[in-house]
Amino acid sequence: MAHAIRFHETGGPDVLRWEEVAVGEPGPGQVRLRHEAVGLNFADTYFRSGLYPVPLPAGMGVEAAGVVVAVGAGVTNVKEGDRVTYTGFINTLGAYSTERIVAAAPLIRLPADIGCATAAAMTMRGLTASYLMRRIHAFKAGDSILLHAAAGGVGLIVSQWARLLGITVIGTVSSEAKAEIARAHGCEHVINYSHEDVAKRVRELTDGTGVNVVFDSVGKDTFEASLDSLRRRGLMVCVGTASGPIPPFNPQLLAMKGSLYLTRPALADFIADPAEKDQLANELFGHVAAGRIRIEINQRYALQDAAQAHRDLESRKTTGSSIFVVDGDA
Questions:
Q1: CA–CA separation, 295 vs 160, rounded Å?
Q2: Which CATH number fits the domain 2-124+296-325, given the four candidates 1.10.520.20, 3.30.750.24, 3.90.180.10, 1.20.1250.20?
Q3: What is the value of pTM for the model shown?
Q4: Which residue of 108, 243, 263, 278 is 20 to 30 Å from 286, comparing CA positions?
Q5: pLDDT (tens digit, 9 = 90+) per residue, 58-76?
């Protein structure tokens, strides 16, 4: 019997339940997928808490990798036996499961040299890093970025990718242990926000100019410091709200701080077109397979331990990527 993590009410990690589920056979445009590894992402907590409302009861998780065991009518992009990975949003909710029916459209076939554990650890984070580095700004060698949560899953990939492009990365972290991890993955400068003034330190490191771009996944707690770290006409990229939503503000603030630009992108809009999704994925897989970008899986959990995994994630105990291991060989 297949199992899944589901929640029947919103709230803290304790609302997550391990349940038996009936999977059935795939319909048109669908596949039955046996998971080997499942990704753990901060966005998962938004569904559980109700920040991202969904009809209840609901499954949990939007990213996983595994093997196609059956295909429905009309499916042409994958076949039985293919190793695949996927990520998405509402359309892939329910990834915390041993087996499931899922639409075939979001599936990405894995190259032989990318394992399911690595794929589950990097598909959402890696595709996010891919569009941040390739679609958001026309980066050139010598540019500089401020990267919040530099020791997190997206942060470690962005840092390595930026280094490949000759970009100076200033990362923020909460501890010296995380600072060491960030430096080892491409951060030229690291700021410990627990005792350093981020914007002031950025100005010191950039001779008073500020950075070209800020990647801010923290939100409420870092928004003002992020704006104050940008150079004139710099770009603020809001990619998450780990500390809470950004409060409403007058857009005149952007003019007052140097005619700044601000964007709030979502991964779904950069992988909606299959050709663009494949392009972003292929470049990501190429870097990982060649060893130019390392994927750090620093936490592994059993699916049954989803509540503890969420506690660890929300208390910022994790670094790099975290996964749930469904198949013991993953």
A1: 10
A2: 3.90.180.10
A3: 0.89
A4: 263
A5: 999 999 999 999 999 999 9
